[in-house]
């Protein structure tokens, strides 16, 4: 149970730090909504075509890629928060039913 509580605290801390200052760029493009959640897509882009910033030059592809990553990670945080809520309810339900069964 303490392992679960530690995981809950880690997720809460991650969610809080992500929601404190979300970095959202004012870019509206249809391609921003189509993000890949596969790690291989991320690794290919990170090691292949994404070369980072060169001096003060910021390429539009870098901005778009960064925004897609922000969107993907934000969606992942929301998914994990929903999963956390589910497991928290399951834990509370099992502890409540466990005490009720012990009384019988």
- Rounded Rg: 20 Å
| Terminus-to-terminus distance | 24 Å
How helix-rich are the residues, as a percent range? 55-70%
Number of helices: 3
Q: Which structural class fits the helix and strand makeup? A: mainly alpha
Number of strands: 0
Number of domains: 1
- Low-confidence parts, pLDDT < 50 over ≥5 residues? 27-38, 42-48
Could you give the order of the helices and strands?
HHH
Q: What's the main sheet like?
A: none
Overall pLDDT score: 71
User: What share of the residues does DSSP label as strand, in percent?
Assistant: under 5%
Shape: elongated
Topology:
Layout: H1 2-20, H2 39-47, H3 60-103
Organism: Nothobranchius kadleci (African annual killifish)
Keywords: Coiled coil, Receptor
Coiled coil: 63-90
What would you note in describing this structure?
- By secondary structure, the chain is an all-alpha fold.
- The chain has one domain.
- It has 3 helices and no strands.
- The chain has helices at 2-20, 39-47, 60-103.
- The two termini are 24 Å apart.
- Mean pLDDT is 71; it is low at 27-38 and 42-48.
Which terms summarize this structure?
coiled coil; 0% strand; mainly alpha; 104 residues
In short:
This protein has 104 residues and is an all-alpha fold. The chain is built from three helices and no strands.
